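Hey, I'm writing a tutorial for new members on how sequence and structure tokens pair up, and I'd like a real worked example in the thread rather than a made-up one. If someone can provide the structure for the chain below, I'll link this post from the tutorial.
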Amino acid sequence: MAFILNVLWLLLGGFMSALGWWTAALVFALTIVGLPWAAAAFRLGLYSLWPFGTEAVDRTMVDTDGFGLRAFNPLLNLVWFLLAGWWLALGHLFWAMVCAITIIGLPFAYAHIKLAGAALFPVGKTIVRTA
């Protein structure tokens, strides 16, 4: 079922959403200073490309090794939240309400709610398969 939902999601806007996230990741990466946010935007692009059967979780739940920069994740997430996270989450919540108008759109509304949560504080998160 997740495969069918992902294919429908992909055809009905998921690909464009992922392209938007990947474009943002490229812009962040070009600034060099924005590399931590570029990595987060790239992961969110992957997440928005195929949201059903996956979940964004804290990286420490999956990977015990790290780069030694985890102490900066809250600061990086705060900057992200103030500059981009809250309005990206509001956009996903808006589209969730639009999708929730019909019964057929309820799974897509759920995907937008998951993406809104991930868009708030993406630094230090990774995407894992749930199904």
